[in-house]
């Protein structure tokens, strides 16, 4: 006998597999990244009323004027971090939102530290992540642009909100050989994805990648 719950989880697994095939068609090549997106139940991170749209390649509202990132962008940023067969290692995510991207990163990184400035959104992320029992994800309420000095250095840093200047404290918390990817620019005008690499000797290299559209990185907490 197939229960309603089993039927719906089979339907969401099929929808998720189709989403991954679209990401592949759109140019995402990293099999580890695609496998992670094929594993995380995105529908469990959005409001019930939006769950049927969870596997469309679009950003969806989370409340608090924030959005869950578009699957393509989550995949693309993860791919940038892992390009060249690089391991993500100890990873900092700034802007945990509903926790979706943290769940995806948990399959690619040794540890994920995800910081969110809106306390009520962080509570949602906690509730969304709990049933998935991902042992290597830690959530923190705070201003993520300050990083987490007591946990630094990080091998990888990813921002889910757009910075208007290069976030200095985050760059300082990058380990030698570390890589950071973030949306850069004003929310209303052109934003571009930027990658910063720290060499083993401590020098930095900045590369501008795809045009993107993100909510702004904001100071402080609420
Ligand atoms: N990673 C999320 C995307 C959330 S949208 C996902 O998986 O869908 C971006 C998030 O960044 C918002 O929740 C916003 O509140 C948060 N944010 C913005 N500025 C921040 C800051 N300085 N520190 C921590 N979080 C921040």
> Spatial order of the strands in the main sheet?
5-4-3-6-7-8-9
Q: What's the order of the H and E elements?
A: HHEEHEHEHEEHEEE
CATH architecture, by name, is: 3-Layer(aba) Sandwich
Please identify which CATH superfamily we are dealing with. Vaccinia Virus protein VP39
Mean pLDDT: 95
Residue share in helix? 25-40%
What share of residues are in beta strands? 25-35%
According to DSSP, the number of beta strands is 9
Total of helices: 6
Shape: globular
Major sheet description: 7 strands, mixed
CATH hierarchy, class: Alpha Beta
Rg (C-alpha, Å): 17 Å
Briefly note the CATH topology name. Rossmann fold
Bound molecules: S-adenosyl-L-homocysteine
Estimated structural class: alpha/beta
| Alpha carbon gap, first and last residue | 47 Å
Describe the secondary-structure layout.
Blueprint: H1 4-25, H2 31-39, E1 60-63, E2 66-68, H3 71-82, E3 90-94, H4 100-106, E4 111-116, H5 119-129, E5 137-141, E6 154-159, H6 168-172, E7 174-184, E8 191-198, E9 204-212
Parallel strand pairs: 3-4, 3-6, 4-5, 6-7
Antiparallel strand pairs: 1-2, 7-8, 8-9
Residues 66-69, 94-98, 100-101, 115-118, 121, 143-145, 160-161, 215, 217-218 line the site of S-adenosyl-L-homocysteine.
